[in-house]
Design brief:
Helix content is 26%, strand content 24%. The chain has 8 helices and 13 strands. It has a 7-stranded mixed β-sheet with strand order 6-13-12-7-8-9-10. A 6-stranded mixed β-sheet has the order 2-1-3-4-5-11, sandwiched between helices. Helix 7 runs parallel beside helix 8. The relative contact order is 0.16.
Length: 301
């Protein structure tokens, strides 16, 4: 059975912690926004820690996150930023207290490791959304979508894709995150069952051939054949090559999944972009894709 953490209410305490890369500056503006939502913000030791590229060494990052997982007064944990490093501490975490009283975990990019681990091992929902490090450049709509998810309001997105979708309607549990991290989790305890799921994917700074390789790996592993639907988010900051690959990320992905019959939409506002809209991982969702108009609904009942 899928477990849904309790929605937040004004006055609740939330924590900011950095399981991966260090934050190179102040996140005071993000704290102010969270406080304007009526939340009390507790700052973890890792937010100001510095160990090479990491927010403290592995032991500190694991201990900081563990403390907030176990603290009953903390009702949600938001990762300060992504980068790299969550996979180095994921197996050190103990969910014994957390699994009986789950709380919302928020993040994206490298935090895909933690979100996937929670669903794969515990069937606990989590939130893929903006992090304090990205708040300053985030669109108001993306920040409001995070607030809605945390406080239990229905999320519905409607947009027009520039790359044509495969039309159809799908209802199922939403999973996904950063493509690179989803692939890296295959064969581990954090590997998610893709069967009958709606999958969303995004990535940044990759070559087209790398996207092609990772998607073909998922296909060969049987992950793409039994989906209910596929949501393709932002694949931006593509690395240029002296010899062109000859296909955009959207074309690469379409070529790999075109043999299936489930709906596939492109250009969804999720990923390493300012308008990174919030998605609840593990939540029942409804996707309606037409050639260009797309809608996705997550009812927060």
């Amino acid at each position: 059975m899928i477990k849904q953490p309790a929605y937040l209410k004004k006055g609740d305490k939330i924590a900011i912690v950095c399981p991966a890369k260090k934050i190179p500056g102040s996140i005071a503006p993000a704290i102010a926004i969270l406080e304007s939502w009526g939340l009390q913000v507790v700052i973890g030791k890792t937010v100001t820690a510095d160990h090479n590229q990491f927010a403290g060494d592995d032991a500190l990052r694991a201990a900081d996150l563990q403390g907030f997982l176990d603290d009953p007064e903390i009702k949600a944990i938001i990762a300060g930023r992504g980068g790299y490093g969550t996979i180095r501490i994921i197996d050190e975490l103990n969910y014994d207290k957390f699994k009986d009283n789950p709380k919302w975990i928020v993040g994206f990019s490298d935090i895909t490791v933690l979100l996937s681990d929670l669903f794969a091992r515990l069937n606990i929902q989590s939130i893929h959304g903006q992090m304090p490090y990205t708040f300053e450049k985030a669109t108001p709509e993306s920040l409001d979508s995070l607030r809605k998810a945390l406080f239990g309001e229905t999320i519905k997105y409607e947009y027009t894709s520039t790359f044509p979708s495969r039309s159809g309607t799908a209802e199922g549990i939403l999973i996904g995150g950063n493509l690179t991290l989803m692939v890296m989790l295959e064969g581990s305890a954090s590997e998610i069952d893709y069967t009958d799921k709606i999958l969303f994917l995004e990535d940044v700074g990759e070559h087209e051939y790398s996207i092609d390789r990772m998607m073909r790996m998922l296909k060969r592993a049987g992950k793409l054949a039994k989906l209910k639907g596929l949501i393709v988010g932002a694949f931006n900051e593509i690395e240029t090559q002296s010899i062109p690959f000859g296909a955009s990320p959207e074309q690469v992905i379409w070529d790999i999944v075109k043999e299936y019959d489930y709906p596939v939409c492109f250009n969804f506002p999720v990923g390493h972009i300012d308008d990174n809209r919030t998605l609840v991982v593990g939540k029942s969702s409804k996707l309606i894709a037409n050639k260009h108009p797309v809608s996705l609904t997550q009812s927060q009942a």
